[in-house]
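During the no-cost extension, the postdoctoral fellow (Dr. R.K.) reprocessed legacy sequence entries with the updated structure-token encoder. One reprocessed record is reproduced below for audit purposes.
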Amino acid sequence: MATSSSSIVAGVSVPRMPFHYFANNSNNNNNKSRRSRRVSFNRIPILARSDAISTRFQSFNPPTLTRRQPHEVGNAALGFCKKKSYTREQRSSMFAHRHTTFPVSEQSGCISCSLNRRKTFPSVKRCIQRVFLDNSAFHLSEHSLGTTSLKRHVPYATVGPDEPHAANTSWPDGILEKQDVDLSYTELDRTDLKGFLGSELPSHPKLYRGQLKNGLCYLILPNKVPSNRFEAHMEVHAGSIDEEDDEQGIAHMIEHVAFLGSKKREKLLGTGARSNAYTDFHHTVFHIHSPTSTKDSDGDLLPLVLDALNEIAFHPKFLASRVEKERRAILSELQMMNTIEYRVDCQLLQHLHSENKLSRRFPIGLEEQIKKWDADKIRKFHERWYFPANATLYIVGDIDNISKTICYIEDVFGQIGLENEIATAPAPSAFGAMASFLVPRLTVGLAGGLSHDNRSSNNGEQSKLIKKERHAVRPPVMHDWSLSECSGVVKPPQIFHHELLQHFSINMFCKIPVNRVQTYGDLRNVLMKRIFLSALHFRINTRYKSSNPPFTSVELDHSDSGREGCTVTTLTVTAEPKNWQSAIRVAVQEVRRLKEFGVTKGELTRYMDALLKDSEHLAAMIDNVSSVDNLDFVMESDALGHTVMDQRQGHESLVAVAGTVTLEEVNSIGAKVLEFISDFGKSTAPSPAAIVACVPKKFYVDGIGETEFMISSSQITAAIESGLKEPIQAEPELEVPKELISPSQLQELRLQCKPSFISLSPEVIGTRLHDKETGITQLRLSNGIPVNYKISKSEARGGIMRLIVGGGRAAESLESQGAVVVGVRTLSEGGRVGNFSREQVELFCVNHLINCSLESTEEFISMEFRFTLRDNGMRAAFQLLHMVLEHSVWLDDAFDRARQLYLSYYRSIPKSLERSTAHKLMLAMLNGDERFVEPTPKSLQNLTLKSVKDAVMNQFVGNNMEVSIVGDFTEEDIESCILDYLGTVRATRDSQRQKEFSPILFPPSPSGLQFQQVFLKDTDERACAYIAGPAPNRWGFTADGEDLFKSIGDISIADDAETKSGMLLTEGKDVGNDIGKELQRKLRCHPLFFGITMGLLAEIINSRLFTSVRDSLGLTYDVSFELNLFDQLKLGWYVISVTSTPGKVHKAVDACKSVLRGLHSNKIAQRELDRAKRTLLMRHDAEIKSNAYWLGLLAHLQAASVPRKDISCIKDLTSLYEAATIEDIYLAYEQLKVDENSLYSCIGIAGAQAGEESTASIEEDESDAALQGVIPVGRGLSTMTRPTT
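Re-encoded structure tokens follow.
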């Protein structure tokens, strides 16, 4: 169930969705799909990360309005997002080399953490797309620091006419370092080296593996984060690949019926446990995240969790009623996920795996077959595949007694299937079944000689043997490998045309067997590939940044896919349709350059050093890795046959192999990966497994309008070949700054500014306010900038800092609509500070392991830095912040690119059902206020470089800014940095520069726009709807100017109990209890009253929506209620999002309205409130050790624009949730406008027979300037089903 992402964090309003500095990021979810299928090679397998966020570079990421937390996607402008459950939604190799998009005008970040980065996989359970993207964000550099793993791009040496090193000699001594030195690693003699590289990597010391007599494998890993909780995942080694021709989708159907039909799982819901399930090609996974015990339970919850998994996997009840219910849900899910992204995904997989069943066994299944199966048919598939010897149980969490845990496993699962199984061990390896399909081979024994029909024979003895063989050797997936010895005729490029595509995309695939990483030599090869392949992205980006590039993005991905059973290297090029040939030519040319000349000595030194620094940082955080991340890592590694090591072992192993790496070997092993592109067409080169272009049917031409897009396979081949003929030159070295501010410059700043701390307010004695309970210190600088910091040891040697500036898009005037969001984008596109080029700033970030992002929302601009305390990393981050505030460079060409990106994004709205539906709703609900939707072409054309610069920089006023820092630093170090780099910012307290916002008003009721529809022409039918209405902001202010605290403050506890007859304050407790009354009074007088009660209300409504609209009525697969509660703006709104079919969507909307309005007729029960409290409090407890979470708690603590936020909003958070009563929830509910005149809804319908008005309401006169954008690419969406709940 989804809830407001900000409900648990008091006063947090700045989204934390990472975007890259100098990177054209796109929030167009299109590009996410293919990367989602596997873990990046950017991360060494042995290093399980403590973070679960992973982002990738996209060509253009228009900003988002909603408060997004890690693991969330959603509709930005509507202010809602869907939380992803802690599900391991994707299985792939940590050895995968994931190089993300390198859009031309921007840059990625850091290789340093890339090797060890964990990938969080977007599920096929994609949330409704973020349709109103009003935040602009950019990353100065991206590194995996702290608890967040971010997709990184690795900057490398630049080349071309604008070489930054050409002007470097004039800078002060000590500022620059030239990285062209040789690596000084200890060398081993050849014999010793061979022996060392052939030795096995160490195994994780705490990982316990075992197997029951019935063949069930189990794995136990004690892990203390989060405390008093554990993960239990039952993985059945059966998926869509095991389905017969008439069973397509039946594995997914079983997942639904078994999971949601379990009564024992339902009993866990009241304990604070979370559960979900998903299906992919080879696996079906049921997982439960649970506390170890509860206040109400006498003992461990582990036996109850295991019992629930036992019922789900091995003893499901295939009731006809449940089958019908889930059939409806799956059919709705099928339509919901059938977006253009999913269809592109399917096309890529169909061509990549055309020789095997992967191309025609997508887990979601076929609609016509799903409609036919009865319970008997489903039960037979279950009997064939669901038995202990074909499953693995994973338990990771706060478990102290391994022996006791094993006894629990044996008691629950030990007797299952013994009467049907042979007593001998089924396989020499406990995990042989998982990995055997990775390197396809001929089947052996009985199973290998049987047809599918024979293998599913009902003969008893034969069935016993089959099951054993099934566990020992999985049916192979035969691949046609892209190997030089297998080289043959190159397959012609395949072309996928569709009217919903806007841009050109091409994917060149190379497919090879997975190379298991089990020795030091294997790990060394991974490291060398990582260093080599990273260079391509930075080079392409920097080489073409100064001109209008022919491409939108170029991405090289080299990664293992456990789901697909192979390693895939992919070159993906996206471009405007008119530039597609030049884009291909440039990409191929750069691949050739890297293959022919290799990386430079400086590149090798720089990125090897960065990788080792990041590895050391991860090793130091070994005790702070969450259970779900450790589990994810272990499951991925096992699926691919890689050795599992902990973070400390991983770092030691990496250091050991780094000392043996040579430049020649790096270039040699890396060149082999690129041969399928660089030597395309040669008889000695491996042939691409597939070349797939996804293109629009029509594209926009300046001065002409929509024109047919014509392209042929021969033209694509010719474009590739032309890139092979382009002249190439070697890459020169680049000088990288050691510092952005030299000691002499800093000394001069100190003398000029005389920075100091001043009193926070007249009431506060002294210059610092320290709270011992929370460890929070509040300071205020003499230039007016307030600072909050907290020393935290949770993330060893790591830190995070955020600058929040009041204003955001709400500060835009009628004459400058879009100025803030385009201004932030302009700053991103330029990427320069002071005399330093963008490339030098990014490489400075690489060397210091700094990750920075800049974002704009409706009410704030924020800049966030993640850094390590090693090698003056914190001081470097402060230097960067100072330079951005004081010496940002605004460039005309950057402004032009930013404006064109938003123009392109606006034109893409009519091609998205979700975005166009939400766009129409937002315009209606907010009276056409453009500050909450994308700027129109007319507004964009009215902007100038000066207007966007002023719109952004005028908000950077001393007392309008607030800086918060959390990390493992000392008081002396942090306050020194604050004084040196924030105290010397020439900020002013000139309040005249801050303009009053134009009022944000809901239209008078009724407005005549309460109900609207959007129609989209499409080959397939789909439908979605949004229902929205006014709400107060987090602090009790409404759009009408009312302060709700004045009204609720007059309500006495006794009077309230009388007026709300029938609403019990508690069940079975004394209503007149003095303590209870006092707690309730405290809550109602607390500034966070509405933030607390609205969050609980959202949980309750979400639960009811699922139970009613999804489960009982079967009208949808996906429905959620979200709140967007602002902090500075005096308003908020709620949104219900629902997906359905065109025939059911109107009923689904009516059902959602009925649930929303039915809280008075169907009273909230105490158990509902208790469950909501447990959910939010457990989420709080799970995240409280995260630096990023504390940073959110600190937000607005001293902000003048959020006057009600104080330290009590942090200290009292837990007690406030516990004190909330049903009466309090109803007080919050009364503030939601749910009557027919206040509620707005918009239904979107796509299909061949949809109405003709799909684009008329959005399209305007187009600009004559060139456009840039992104297109949907990928093959991740089709490889697995969405989480069941």
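Residues 1-186, 421-473, 1056-1069, 1253-1275 have pLDDT under 50 and may be disordered. The CA atoms of residues 248 and 365 lie 5 Å apart. The remaining legacy entries will be reprocessed before the final report is submitted.
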